Structure formats: C-alpha cells, structure tokens
Amino acid sequence: MNTLLRQFFTAPVSLAFWAFGWAYTIVRFRHIGIDIATTGDVPALRVGKVVRVVRTTTMAWVVVLRWGLLYFAYCHLAKTTHLPKVGDRVRKGEIIGRLAWTDYPQNPGYGGSLWNGPHLHLVVSTHPEAAYRKVAGAVYLDPAPLIRDTLTIPDPRIARVTTRATRLFAAPAKDAPGLKNLPKDTRVVTVGSAVGGFLRVKYSDAVAYILASRLVTQKARVHTPGSDLRYRSRPSTVTGKILGALPHGTVVTILGVDGSTSSAKWARVTVGGREVWVARKFLR
After folding, report:
1. Domain 3-149's class?
2. Which residues are bridge partners to 277 per DSSP?
3. What helix, strand, coil percent values describe the chain, rounded to 5?
4. Which of 40, 101, 160, 278 counts the highest number of beta carbons within 10 A?
5. Angle at Cα 70 formed by Cα 100 and Cα 67, nearest 5°?
6. Which residues are paired to 246 by β-bridges?
7. Cβ proximity of 147 and 92 under 8 Å
8. CA Rg, the chain, in Å?
9. Is the Cβ–Cβ distance between 121 and 75 less than 8 Å?
10. What's the pLDDT tens digit per position in 65-93?
11. CATH of domain 219-282
C-alpha cells in the first residue's frame, strides 16, 4: 500500500464527525466531517473523478472527488501547483493538494477563516457541494469507517447471500445510499475486512458494501470426471508445490480467490484442516 496514504490517514483525528460546535452552520452546531491533524501533501483516500476545485472563504481551497454515489471533499488546501483540474481521474494515494500552513490571507498557504492550525477537514456526503454550502437533502457520512476500510489489506473471498433481497450500500452504514438488492444465493467476492458490521464486496465489476451477517462462505464440488484435482501450496503451476489430489465430487469450502490477477483463476480451499490452492475452473 502507498506509504504516504497510510501515514497520512493514520495521523491523529483532532475533531470527530458530528462533534458539537457553536461555529458550525452548514448543519447547525454539528461538525460534518473529521479533522486529521497533519501537514504536507494530501493523498486521495479513494480513486475518483474530480468534480469541484473551488476557493472558499472559510476553508480555502476544496477539492471534491466522486467515488460511486459519494463525494469526498478535501478542505483547507493551499493554492499550490498540486491542485488537480475538474475532470481529472485520480488514483488512490495520488497527491491532490497540500495542506494550508498559515492564517495570513495574502499568503498562498492561507487556510481560510475557520483554519486553526494544519489539518485536513474531510467531508463525505451525497452532494458535490455539501461540504461548503447548505444543500437540502444532502446526507453526511462518518469518514472514519471508510478510512479504516481503505487501509485494510484486501483478502478476496467468495461468499453467498443467505437472505432474500439483501441490499448493497454505497458506504458501510445503514443510512448510506442503497445501490440495489441482491437475491438469495447471489455470489459476491469480498475485498476487505468487516467494518462496522459491513463487508466491502465486488459484484458485476462494482464495489459496494453489504451486511456481513447476510453472507456465508461458499461451498463447491470438485468437477473433474475421470480424474482428480491437484491442490498446491501456492496459486501457481510454476511455484506452487503439488501437495495432493482431490477426487471428483469432493465438497470443499472456498475461503478466497487469488487477488493478484483480475481473472482470479485460483481458489483457496480447506483440505483436511489446511488451506491449499486449486484451479477455480474445476469447482462447481
């Protein structure tokens, strides 16, 4: 993982989401984001498209990225050459600005009238301008679970929906926008650890969140008529040592898939209490 990304977003949170304060006016008396007390370059927490780059009076420069149905607003940025342009596509960890460092309005490092020392004010909402003006109907989400989820090293795992009409969410929260309902027995690939009872999953090339309690690990049957299926120590025919073979019809539990390639040709399964790798195409 990008070192700057991890170092930046593990810095202390100086003010939490929804904290009370007399100065807050967008949502009266409430802090609509979190403040991360750090300095220097600001990396993007998620991939996204730049939809706003605006100069505000209270928070200096604000860069807003769209990720799915959510908008990530990075506030208190200085006027530097780092600022992206509207329409730019940004990778996770890519630098999108530099934090303000002064309260002197004529200085390019000015942080805005509400600046009280170097920090990033990060706002996650359902509207591109909700971080710096009142927007009717805008929903604000706590960025902390999204940060924890991003910093989690993915462990791809195949799972099955166990209940009827399980909803996919845009963020790991029940009040986040719903994307669609998945019918019972739908297969998904989890791509992160549980955060607040939710799992990040990949379904039809989209990444979303689902309640972890609605999923179970998938079981499969070896399908190799007339032969056995070799299992290996690693997901490779070159570096993976052959450890044994499974007869046709053997039922296995799929713990995950090889996340190093988009095709995920290998599955991690349990055999006799140990975790091994088999070719995924021979499982039904």
Report:
1. mainly beta
2. 232, 268
3. 10, 45, 50
4. 278
5. 80
6. 229
7. no
8. 23
9. yes
10. 998 889 999 999 998 878 999 999 998 99
11. 2.30.30.40
Q: Looking at the domain covering 152-216, what would its CATH class be?
A: mainly beta
In sequence order, the β-bridge partners of residue 20 are 30
Tokens 């208190």 -> residue:
76
- Is residue 102 within 8 A of residue 111, CB to CB? The reply is yes
Give burial (CB, 10 Å; 0-12/13-18/19+) of 157. Answer: buried
pLDDT at 207: 81
Residues 6+ apart with CB under 8 A from 151: 1, 5, 6, 9, 10
Instruction: Report pTM.
Output: 0.68
Taking only the tens place, the pLDDT of each residue in 129-171 is: 999 999 999 999 999 989 988 887 555 667 778 777 788 998 8
Phi, psi (degrees; rounded to nearest 5) at 5: -60, -50
Cα within 13 Å of Cα(18), Cβ side: 7
Rounded to the nearest 5 degrees, what angle is found at the Cα of 48, between the Cα atoms of 44 and 51?
105
